[in-house]
Design goal:
262 residues; globular; mainly alpha
């Protein structure tokens, strides 16, 4: 049985070159074995499958928490009236959401420290749930349900596509980043000109929807690993789950923006 099954070709080649160059010292042999064990553990299918299950279970928990909080904000009259009277709360929640997003995305210590990582994750879910409740209050119930249904179908279709396709979207990270900056710039322009050109809001929502679809495929392929050029370490289940969660929430908001039934 080949010990190097499933590892990149250049690693096997490097090993064969070392083996022909002469005998190894005991220290070099121990170091090589350590590297092999670590790399094989990350590439092992069972480890990756457990990681994927954990990520999607966390994603389901996040969506359920967010949906519950949003429902309370929409259908519990005292809460709904309080949020309407104190409109400044949405700006505070937006600022908190941005801060939490930066912390979870950029601070490895927070993502990997239990139970701090779970606290930050679910606290962010609660904040986003309230924020979505404020946003959704501007739309009719049927519009919200349609947006939720379309979001679910799009996410399901893109997930199946990401698992099955031979296209490796993870190699396009730089291009996706540049396009994202352009779309954000267009979004700021649309904010200032929407009074003159109301159609800009719908155009922006459509462009963002396409970009978010690309992000969902990108994040899913990073999660899958395997034959893709880039992948997420199994220790980063919080980061992987949070990325998909943000994609879904943003896609849901875009679906509501595209829906004219307020």
């Amino acid at each position: 049985m080949d010990l190097y099954y499933g590892q990149p070709k250049h690693q096997s080649l490097a090993r064969s070159e070392r083996s022909t160059s002469g005998p190894q010292t005991p220290n070099e042999e121990v170091q090589e074995r350590i590297v092999i064990v670590v790399q094989f553990g990350f590439e092992d299918k069972e480890v990756r499958l457990r990681f994927i299950r954990k990520v999607y279970l966390l994603l389901l928990a996040q969506i359920l928490i967010t949906a519950g909080i949003t429902s309370v904000c929409l259908f519990v009259k005292p809460v709904n009236e309080f949020l309407r009277e104190h409109y400044w709360i949405q700006y505070v929640l937006l600022a908190v959401t941005i801060i939490m997003f930066i912390l979870i995305s950029c601070c490895e210590a927070i993502r990997r420290t239990v139970p701090l990582n779970f606290f930050c994750l679910f606290f962010c879910n609660i904040v986003i749930g309230v924020l979505l409740g404020i946003i959704a209050a501007n739309y009719s119930l049927i519009s919200i349900l349609i947006a939720a249904g379309v979001t679910f179908l799009i996410f399901l279709a893109l997930t199946v596509f990401a698992f099955q396709t031979r296209w490796d979207i993870t190699t396009l990270g730089g291009i996706i980043f540049v396009v994202s900056l352009c779309v954000v710039a267009f979004g700021f322009i649309a904010i200032f000109l929407r009074g003159i050109f109301p159609i800009l809001q719908i155009v922006y929502a459509g462009v963002m929807t396409v970009l978010l679809c690309v992000y969902i495929v990108f994040d899913t392929q990073m999660l899958i690993g395997g034959r893709h050029k880039h992948s997420i370490s199994p220790e980063e289940y919080i980061y992987a789950s949070f990325n998909l969660y943000v994609d879904i929430v943003y896609l849901f908001c875009m679906m509501m923006s595209c829906n004219c039934g307020r």
